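Hi! If you just cloned this repository, the fastest way to understand the data is to look at a raw example. We've pasted two of them here, unedited. The first protein comes first, obviously.
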Amino acid sequence: MPSMTERVYPDEMDTSREIQRIIKDVFLRRYGLARDWFKEHFGKRRLKILDIACGSGFGSAILSELGETMGVDIDSESIEYAKTHYQNGGVKFLSGNADDPAFLDSLGRFDAIMSSGTIEHLSDPISFLSWIKKALNPGGICVLAFPSTFTMDWAAPHHKRDIKPNQAIEMFSTCGFKIERRFIEGHHLRLKDLRQETHENPELPVPPLKQWIAYYLGHPHHFAVRMYQITLGKGVLFQDQEYLLAPDG
């Protein structure tokens, strides 16, 4: 079984564990929503689709219901898993880096682009979004999904930034996109479930204590929020946002 750290393997997950159940549901819903938005926008037309940062490939398989789909991810282990479990005549997989402009330009053009859990990892999300606009065929659209609450206390160095909804809106406008749809959902993760997952899944990217201390010294408000969530709130907030974007003009 491949490691489940930043990537999701739905067929391998133990949904008797609350954290894995929530993560599986969230990621399957992300791709189901993207598929439905694409279908509503294009109707019965067969599409050429790119799933950039496709992870284990399960989402690319969902999108391939609508047409020829290419899944791309930087992690070679995930791509090999995707090829073994999901590749067929309607979906193919390729290893590549979304932070590499030359690689992105080599991919060609698409009717629809999906990118889930990507821009929080990139060195230059503005450049990436500008490329998406350029890579879309006339009338094309894209779907972006990413966290909408702060994550840098536990996700660093995997995440390079947190993106608030107002920051996302400004970024989309800067890159020449308009928002057609938006979906935000949140879940509260109980501390005992987080502890169980950390204990039973040692490959999770848990930062060392000194990294936690350094982060919270620089972000005391985030420390206060986490303490409230753990002690008086319903649990640590896990929240995602998903946007359907179209070029503005």
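Ok, and the second one:
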Amino acid sequence: MIQIFIEAAPLRAHLNHLRDNHFTIGLVPTMGALHSGHISLIKASKIQNDLTVCSIYVNPAQFNNPIDLEKYPRTFDSDIEILKDAGCDMVFAPGNNEMYGKPSQIKFDFGSLDKILEGEFRPGHFSGVALVVAKLFNIIQPAKAYFGQKDFQQFKVISKLVEELKFDLELICAPVVREPDGLAMSSRNMRLNPDQRQKAVILSKVLRESKAQLLSGEKLTLVKNIAMERFMAQNIRLEYFEAVDKDSLTPLETVSDPGQVVLLIAAYIGEVRLIDNLFLIEK
């Protein structure tokens, strides 16, 4: 029987009681609109912990585009059914008043880590992510927390948050879960019409093609130019396509150590912004 909490205090008290009885807690933070990628995180948590909490909260602090916030899919009832089927133990589904009460004055700065790539195009996004994740960590105090590799820069930011604020937990980064045609699963995929859905596959195709080209010795500059031409030919707005160091996320000019390189991409399919990534050499 899944338990649903909308207030922090009862959830915190319940989890404290469970920890006193030596239960380990896993956390899967989400914004709802759940798909198989989220469920892979739930399943991983269930294997590694006694109990699993899934949070469902569309966090306004991490949206720098009000239209994106307004149109973000909200499918709470079906999400609960999905979580029941997956064996999730508890859901934390707070409202804005519970999480913020009043507008927060706290801002996070992660140096260059939150200024490049996503940070360049979504200023303030990672500060909002870090704020809500810190709140969830404080309320739930999990032994382990699970995030998807699709949001790889987000995972690096949260890793820095845990390091700097000394949260006593382990972060788990789970592999990207893809549709049969290669498209990375995302809640935003729900907003694509059939034609856009078909076009969206270009993100994963370009990543795979670029990976093969780089591993065969092609120069990074040429590979990036080919990728940009692919997007232009389909009249798709590419925001960025970069090869970066997997630790610092610093964009690279050449590929000297493929084991250190991850390709990251962001593009608009219609008005829907999608991201994806691929390691040159899988972890």
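That's it. A detail worth noticing about the second one: Strands lie at 3-5, 25-30, 51-56, 90-92, 144-148, 170-174, 237-245, 261-269, 272-279.
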